[in-house]
Design brief:
DNA damage, Arc Repressor Mutant, subunit A, ATL_DNA_repair, 8% strand, two-stranded antiparallel ribbon, 105 residues
Amino acid sequence: MPHNPDSDQQLILQTIHAIPCGQVSTYGQVAKLAGLPGKARYVGYVLKTLPQGSSIPWHRVINSQGKLSFPAHTEAYREQKQRLLAEGIVFNDHKISLRKFLWKA
């Protein structure tokens, strides 16, 4: 049965919305929890198309290496890092400890 892009997008957004404050998830983990294994890039696409001012906690989604996906010199990188720091997430040399901060859904 083919996936419906609108319902896939809703599943991804619901999953991201459930990530608790002070924890992070990877693109791949979000895809898997949304029932869309192997669709990590699609998670990135959905986040990229979020409207400005969305209440979805997009900043809690990071890559599988524990890093932010934005280039370090960009405003988006700084905003994401600030939001995560404000939630108590610690960076060690631009990385987040997945062992410590990964959402155990």
